[in-house]
Write a structure and sequence with these properties.
Layout (H helix, E strand, L loop, with lengths): L1 E3 L2 H7 L3 H6 L8 E5 L2 E9 L2 E7 L2 H11 L5 E6 H10 L4 E3 L3 E7 L9 E2 L6 H8 L12 E9 L2 E9 L6 E8 L8 H17 L1 E6 L4 H9 L3 E10 L2
Parallel strand pairs: 4-5, 11-12
Antiparallel strand pairs: 1-2, 2-3, 3-4, 5-13, 6-13, 7-12, 7-13, 8-9, 9-10, 10-11
Pfam families: Acetyltransf_1
GO molecular function, one term: acyltransferase activity, transferring groups other than amino-acyl groups
InterPro entries: Acyl_CoA_acyltransferase, GNAT_dom
């Protein structure tokens, strides 16, 4: 089992955007390892969770999970089909917690003119309370970098944030459209703006999405994102 000490080490060991995104934790108390082609990144605080993000062949992932996966409130995170394979071979039982979606894309995307980065997040918090109260990204929260928006008549009616980006994976969170302005393509415009900007900066853009949110998944697919089922695990009682 080999310790990966830098973000570059993780990038050399894996081309999976999920673990490359998690590699940002190495600059804030995290750690990473490689074993038999698999990679694990321990992120003490990443999108509000203490995570162990894993990718690679199931045998190697199972070994990394056995070595580093125990801990109070630690959430092992990996692609769901991989998790099912890993659970079937683990000597210590694990159970699935909550599946959801990871979406990413690379390349380039046209930058729409209707959206812009906000100089200050004025109106964002009120919009989130109205349209997306369960958002994981909020103004002023650690790791949330900046907000984009679309205005209609001087009012902020759509927003999305760059939050928890890594060295080579930009991350989009906090998408919201005011209920009185849905169905007008504003969510797509603000998401396209943020995606285009992050692709230019990082080369890859990614996001989390609830696996039951078909309209959101369809919107992101329209912007070129590919969907993967991911899940977190818990030690069996």
């Amino acid at each position: 089992m080999r310790r990966l000490r830098t973000t570059a080490d993780v990038q050399d060991a894996s081309d999976d955007p999920l673990v490359r995104w998690a590699a940002q934790a190495l600059s804030s108390g995290g750690a990473a390892w490689e074993h038999n082609g698999a990679v694990a990144v321990h992120a003490p605080v990443l999108t509000r969770r203490r995570r162990l993000v894993l990718a690679g062949p199931a045998e190697g992932v199972a070994s990394l999970l056995a070595a580093h996966g125990r801990g109070v409130e630690l959430r092992p995170l990996m692609e769901r089909p991989l998790a099912l394979d890993v659970m079937s071979v683990m000597p210590t039982p694990w159970v699935e917690d909550k599946p959801f979606g990871w979406m990413d894309r690379s390349g380039t995307l046209d930058l729409p003119t209707e959206a812009c980065w906000l100089g200050a997040p004025d109106g964002v918090e009120a919009l989130l309370h109205e349209a997306n109260p369960d958002s994981w990204a909020w103004p002023g929260e650690k790791g949330v970098c900046r907000w984009a928006g679309v205005h209609v008549g001087g009012e902020l009616v759509a927003t999305a944030a760059e939050a928890w980006s890594s060295a080579d994976v930009g991350f989009m969170m906090g998408v919201a459209v005011h209920p009185s302005h849905t169905g007008q393509g504003l969510g797509q415009r603000v998401c396209q703006f943020v995606t285009s900007s992050l692709l230019t900066l990082y080369g890859t853009c990614a996001l989390f999405v609830e696996n039951y949110n078909a309209p959101a998944i369809a919107l992101y697919r329209k912007l070129g994102f590919a969907y993967r089922d991911v899940t977190t695990l818990l030690p069996a009682a």
